[in-house]
Design goal:
single chain; alpha/beta; Rossmann fold; nine-stranded mixed β-sheet; 27 helices; 23 strands; 18% strand; disordered N terminus; binds cytidine-5'-diphosphate; binds magnesium ion; RNA helicase activity
Length: 709
């Protein structure tokens, strides 16, 4: 039977398809552990709250024919509504812990709102990811069902997208956006309740918000201003660590989970992507059509590839099984598409969701009975010693593995297929390292400085490594954002840099652009780099795509190529853009997103009074301008034909996807590092090394860089 998988692709050997799972059924149980004495345990007491009827059920899981109000009442959190409200009333700070899907994110803000605990203020609910903020806000606005749509009582705010109004009382926003609001008002006065959701994710932004919100609450108390309630929520976290930091009580919501059988592979799988597809078809042949499947992979490209493979293979007459509907789910998707994962599928059709770790805890899709866990995740990590901030696909932690497993046991008993061996599982780290301990801190350090806080004196839950803080200060100093490394006082440029929702290196590029007369070009490049790739690269059409892409090609490299593609796209009339994108293998969603981002960045530039300018075809100006922000991201060709970074002397290679791969320019500027077996540089521009002397003479001197070709 396994021979069927030969259909998949020529490049994979047969052995990859004959996956043998060693069934080791174990019962999945709540991994939160026994409640510590401090916790308040809420039992399933009967809550008698009259809830108005509504017949809308448009956005719920596919197997559910209940009305929205019936669904709300069925959620575990509903049983505890009164007790919860009572606790929230009595405590200024509270930690709420409850199984994923029990209704924390969608229900608790509504409970607070209907009990008017927010008084005249707003309830903010932070999410680490935009996809969650948007989809949950949309759901909650339907649940409230007061006739007004999203953006009225319930709104959302994510980077480059705001759907709110003066009526908005419940605001779902990314943690990054709340942090930006804190720059304008560090006491966050427009909010009376702040819910820090998914606290276990420990993104840099959440970690910084912990300290900012805690401080805002304290200062508001001291100054007798409107008090601020703080609620920290999660499905899984180190409760003792959190309750010690926030000095508060923990409420433990009992949820429902069903046993999940766990299967490990017999042998390690190098090609986990193919193994996921193979496993899916194994399930697909046997399981009834109404059992949905959730596959965890790492990022957009991989997810789109698997979605495509499954769609294609499912149509093959040799593959037995019901028809399938396959949905991708990842952060950079447009909101309209993200909502689709919640939609019903026709009867006798299997629903498959291929997702990043966003479906781990932030988003719950009902009806999932089988989880396929690749065991991998894409994370950004920074190494102060190498100076490189790299996107890396790496193994998940055991905590994440358990969360993924739990997704299969939401509605009834389920199965979780781990694409790794039991031994590999045991070797995984217990929990994920907080982002603050592994990321480039320059954005956060800059944001804190604009709040007049020095990162070294900030009340972090876990202090970031000293070297990371030091290198962030060093970087900001070299960018001209601070007066000197010690005082950390922002310069005028630094204050302007903090206004952009960007890495300071990219804000610097925009703020320098008028000196090079290339603001239009810089805006385009920075906007495109802020999203996912605009180029589609279907492997089956490689030659065709390469031939077509020639017209955008630039000997100066990828950034200019992006610029060329964008320029041509804007020249196409509105009506023809879709077909133009299709013809040129351009991802229409991503290029549309880039256009929106560009408009917003242009708006901030106008506010900073940066005059509009364009350099036409003089690409030297653009290349120099890129260097004003990215001078630490330069590599030189070595005698042995490899590349070495000028900043910290790291050996690197040009990624094969670069348009100048194969040419060996003496100096290149890069914007992305991908770490696999080697350290690859992606998105490149060739530069002249003498420009460094002209643009950043101090840096050249400090690093002792030889600026002769
Ligand atoms: O936050 P928590 O994990 O506790 O749960 P939640 O996000 O509040 O989700 C509660 C329920 O609402 C789940 O059963 C979800 O499937 C459902 N939901 C939905 O149907 N559509 C959405 N857009 C969001 C949630
Ligand atoms: Mg939630």
């Amino acid at each position: 039977m396994d021979s069927k998988y030969d259909l998949m692709s020529g490049k994979c050997s047969n052995s990859k398809f004959s996956l043998k799972f060693k069934p080791t059924p174990i019962v999945f149980h709540n991994k939160n552990g026994p409640p510590s004495p401090k916790k308040i345990k809420l039992n399933n007491s009967k809550a008698e709250i009259p809830i108005p009827n509504s017949n809308s059920n448009s956005n719920f899981g596919n197997k559910c024919k209940l009305s929205i109000q019936e669904q709300k009442r069925k959620l575990p959190v509903f049983q505890n509504r009164n007790k919860l409200l009572d606790l929230i009333k009595r405590h200024q700070t509270l930690i709420i812990l409850g199984e994923t899907g029990c209704g924390k994110t969608t229900q608790i803000p509504q409970y607070i709102y209907s009990a008017r605990l927010q008084n005249n203020g707003r309830i903010a609910v932070t999410q680490p990811r935009r996809v969650a903020a948007i989809s949950i806000a949309t759901r909650v606005s339907q649940e409230i069902g007061n006739g007004a749509g999203i953006g009225d009582t319930v709104g959302y705010l994510v980077r480059f997208e705001e759907v709110t109004s003066k009526n908005t009382k419940i605001l779902y926003l990314t943690d990054g956006m709340l942090l930006r609001e804190a720059i304008v008002d560090n006491l966050l006065m427009q909010y009376t309740v702040i819910i820090l959701d998914e606290a276990h994710e420990r993104t840099i932004h959440t970690d910084v918000l912990f300290g900012i919100v805690k401080n805002a609450q304290k200062v508001r108390d001291e100054r007798k201003l409107t008090p601020l309630k703080v609620i920290i929520m999660s499905a899984t976290m180190d409760v003792d660590h959190f309750s010690k930091y926030f000095e508060c009580k923990v409420v433990y919501l009992e949820g429902r989970t069903y046993p999940v059988n766990i299967f490990y592979t017999k042998a390690p799988q190098d090609d986990y992507q193919t193994a996921c597809v193979a496993t899916f078809f194994k399930i697909h042949r046997q399981a009834p059509a109404d059992e949905d499947v959730l596959i965890f992979l790492t990022g957009q490209e991989e997810i789109e590839a698997v979605v495509h493979q499954i769609r294609l293979l499912a149509k093959d007459p040799e593959v037995n099984g019901p028809p399938v509907r396959v949905y991708p789910l990842y952060a950079s998707q447009p909101s309209s598409q993200q909502i689709c994962v919640f939609q019903s599928v026709p009867e006798n059709t299997r629903k498959v969701i291929v997702s990043t770790n966003v479906a781990e805890t932030s988003i719950t899709i009902s009806g999932v009975k089988h989880v396929i866990d690749s065991g991998m995740v894409k994370v950004r990590s920074y190494h102060p010693t190498t100076g490189l901030d790299a996107l890396k696909v790496q193994r998940i932690s055991q905590e994440q593995a358990w969360q993924r497993t739990g997704r299969a046991g939401r509605v009834s008993e389920g199965n979780c297929y781990r694409i790794y061996t039991k031994f590999q599982f045991e070797c995984l780290q217990k929990s994920t390292m907080p982002e603050i301990e592994r990321c480039n801190l320059s954005t956060v350090v800059l944001q804190l400085l604009s709040l007049e806080i020095h990162a070294a004196h900030f009340d972090f839950m876990d202090k970031p490594p000293k070297e990371s803080v030091a290198s962030a200060f060093e970087q900001l100093n070299m960018l001209g954002a601070i007066e000197d490394v010690d005082s950390g006082k922002l310069t005028e440029l630094g204050t302007q840099m903090a206004l952009f929702p960007l890495d300071p290196r990219f804000s610097k590029i925009l703020l320098s652009a008028s000196n090079y007369g290339c603001l239009e070009e810089a805006l385009t490049i920075v906007a495109i780099l802020s999203g996912e790739s605009i180029f589609l690269n279907p492997p089956a059409k490689r030659d065709q795509v390469q031939a077509l892409r020639q017209k955008f090609y630039s000997a100066y490299g990828d950034h200019i190529m992006l610029l060329n593609a964008f320029r041509e796209y804007t020249n196409v009339s509105q009506n023809n853009r879709r077909s133009w994108c299709h013809e040129h293998y351009i991802n229409i969603r991503n290029i549309t997103y880039a256009r929106e981002v560009r408009a917003q960045l242009a708006d901030i530039c106008r506010k900073c009074q940066i005059p509009a300018s364009s350099c036409g075809s003089n690409m030297d100006q653009v290349r120099k301008c890129l260097l004003t922000g990215l001078f630490t991201n330069v590599a030189e060709l070595h005698r042995d034909r490899s590349y070495i970074t000028l900043d910290k002397r790291q050996i690197v290679s040009i990624h094969p996807s670069s348009c100048i791969h194969g040419q060996k320019p003496p100096y290149i500027l890069f914007t992305e590092v991908v770490q696999t077996s080697k350290c690859y540089l992606r998105s490149l521009t060739t530069i002249n090394v003498e420009w460094l002397l002209e643009i950043v003479p101090d840096y050249v001197r400090i690093r002792n860089i030889k600026c002769v070709d």
